[in-house]
């Protein structure tokens, strides 16, 4: 029986930018008006770190119990030989296409408020993951690989293929963290452990893509205003549903 590590109220609506030092200071003056925070909630938010520790300290599909310990600095969370970092699994792509963002700015009456709302909603626990932290690890590789570009749906497709021993753009990166993925036994174990059921079909054997999928061969980012809005809405819907799953899991333990 999984008993939570300690009694704590996890607020699935808590916005991790709110306890990240100076995150919103002069936000819209940065990156040529595209907006960027002055700190990274993945590193700076103490509440996020605590929530990660509580949520993922539980039985693993391989029969072990992950008992995460609080760290500091690069030692974010630790367990056995593992060192974990937080990763935001949603993305606004504000810096990827300046021209497209200016088109969207013109179409939305109060673009700044709109984007701030998106950021606050996706910087809740439903939009966050933990991965092994190392140079060239999953957090970095999925952001910089030209065939992934920080898309969570494509990242999860790489993980699905990994468990089937199929090649993907991130296969070598995932293989380097084999010990981590072995903890979950298979793809279903990984999905269920991290409450990612809303990213897959009912059988949990295929991915629900948030944008077009062409087998990692074409352009992966939104190219039109319509595609961009579809992308944002999929991010928001996923975070909303995952927050509900997390809240239900907390209440049942």
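-> sequence recovered:
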């Amino acid at each position: 029986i999984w008993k939570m590590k300690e009694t704590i109220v996890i607020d699935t609506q808590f916005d991790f930018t709110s306890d990240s030092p100076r995150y919103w200071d002069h936000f819209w003056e940065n990156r040529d008006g595209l907006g960027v925070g002055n700190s990274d909630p993945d590193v700076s938010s103490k509440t996020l770190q605590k929530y990660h520790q509580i949520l993922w300290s539980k039985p693993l599909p391989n029969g072990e119990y992950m008992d995460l310990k609080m760290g500091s600095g690069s030692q974010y969370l630790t367990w056995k030989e593992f060192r974990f970092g937080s990763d935001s699994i949603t993305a606004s792509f504000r810096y990827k296409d300046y021209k497209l963002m200016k088109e969207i700015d013109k179409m939305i009456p109060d673009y700044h408020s709109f984007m701030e709302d998106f950021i606050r909603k996706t910087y809740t626990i439903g939009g966050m993951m933990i991965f092994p932290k190392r140079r060239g690890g999953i957090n970095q590789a999925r952001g910089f690989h030209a065939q992934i570009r920080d898309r969570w749906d494509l990242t999860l497709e790489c993980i699905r293929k990994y468990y089937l021993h199929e090649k993907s753009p991130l296969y070598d990166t995932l293989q380097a963290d084999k010990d981590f993925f072995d903890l979950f036994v298979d793809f279903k174990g990984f999905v269920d452990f991290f409450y990612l059921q809303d990213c897959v079909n009912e059988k949990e054997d295929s991915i629900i893509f948030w944008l077009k999928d062409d087998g990692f061969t074409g352009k992966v980012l939104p190219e039109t205003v319509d595609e961009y809005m579809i992308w944002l809405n999929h991010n928001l819907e996923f975070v909303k549903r995952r927050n509900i799953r997390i809240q239900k899991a907390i209440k049942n333990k």
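The CA atoms of residues 4 and 253 lie 7 Å apart.
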